[in-house]
Amino acid sequence: MLRGTLLYLADQPALKRMFGGALARPLVRRFVAGETLADAMAAVGRLNAAGTTATLDYLGESVARAEAANKAALQYVAILHAIERQGARANASLKLTQLGLDVDRALCVRNVERLVVQAAQFGNFIRIDMEGSDYTQTTLEIFKELFARHKNVGVVIQAYLYRSEADIRELNAMGARVRLCKGAYSEPASIAFPDKADTDANFVKLMQLLLSEGVYPGIATHDERMIEATRSFAAREGILPDRFEFQMLYGVRRDLQAQLVREGYRMRVYVPYGGEWYPYLVRRLAERPANLLFFARGVLRERRHS
Ligand code: FDA
CA-CA distances (angstroms) from residue 297 to 61, 140, 223, 254, 304? Predict the structure, then answer.
């Protein structure tokens, strides 16, 4: 119920003004690396030094104008150059609606392909994030179109969707690189498991399919039970830790990130930055409403000091 309400709020940008601004700053800073690429690259430097790799996300989605999509594409070109210049162990994650999918499909494909080509020149990789279910089919179609021409691009599959097992089997057969996550949007029971326990069970099943048949999958979760299931399946099947990577979000379970690195697992941290943090932040609150307490404490602290 609370999750649904919060996810509804994520789609109401007008509320950003009310909810955002100075009062939310401590919470924003916890989950977002900063407003600028320089802030994000500094965070990547710290993560690399701690033994983790990173994926950079320039925050933004659902752009309605071609100019905004092209501007986002330019920012991603800058990301790829910054990674190369810094010698950082990092790649980039993007959303198709940020690169113009709602404006014009062909424009979006052009923008993303340009980035994939640029990444290939640097020996780097682009991950296409998965958005709400209105976009699942188109995202997979565009991914396949690009993957037919370039191999340094990957996609994301959400364990809460009923269709995901079939999608993973197809992607595995193609040799595509998949990030598996539970799924962050509000979806109807006609297409997604309404019960978390069923999503979790499906996550384990899909993780096993990816580890045994897929190409260097990313297992993206902070759930210790999912992580334990992955470790024990890999050990049982003799799958070495360099054949997959765990992935977590910036600012979430930093203790667990460090622990997995210490134990010799690969860990990639998703590093979002930019001014358009509102929908991203609200999805993080919906995943763990206890974060609202962190927010409330920040508000009280700011009030006391103002
Ligand atoms: P779950 O939500 O069950 O949480 C398990 C535990 O993890 C919690 O009990 C808590 O301890 C901790 N935790 C989880 N979220 C937290 C938070 N926000 N703050 C603090 N603690 C938290 N989704 C999507 O739809 N499309 C995508 O492309 C991506 N991409 C993506 C990349 C990466 C690297 C990650 C880690 C996640 C995504 N996601 C995503 C988000 C994903 O679908 C999911 O919403 C979150 O990862 C939360 O699910 P968990 O697997 O962590 O489990």
Answer: 29, 41, 25, 20, 11
Distance, in Å, from the CA atom of 6 to the CA atom of 2, rounded to the nearest integer, reads: 6
Concerning whether 11 is annotated as a catalytic residue, the answer is no
Distance 283 CA to ligand 1 centre (A): 9
CA torsion 167-212-152-32 (nearest 10°) is 80
Under DSSP, the state recorded for 53 is E
Q: Which of 57, 127, 167, 179 is catalytic?
A: 179
Q: How many whole angstroms separate alpha carbon 89 and alpha carbon 44?
A: 8
Give me the pLDDT at residue 209, please: 98
The total number of residues shown for the chain amounts to 306
pTM for this prediction? 0.93
Q: Is the CB of 249 under 6 A from ligand 1?
A: yes
- What's the pLDDT at 25? 73
Rounded CA-CA distance 30/138 in Å is 32
Residue numbers in the chain where pLDDT is lower than 70: 1-2, 6-24, 294-306
* Catalytic residue list contains 179: yes
Please give the helix or strand (H or E) that residue 38 lies within, else none.
helix 37-49
Asked whether 115 and 73 are in contact (CB, 8 A), the reply is: yes
Q: Can you tell me the distance from the alpha carbon of 53 to that of 91, in angstroms, rounded to the nearest whole number?
A: 8
What is the CATH topology of the domain spanning 33-276? TIM Barrel (3.20.20)
Q: What is the pLDDT, as a whole number, of residue 231?
A: 98
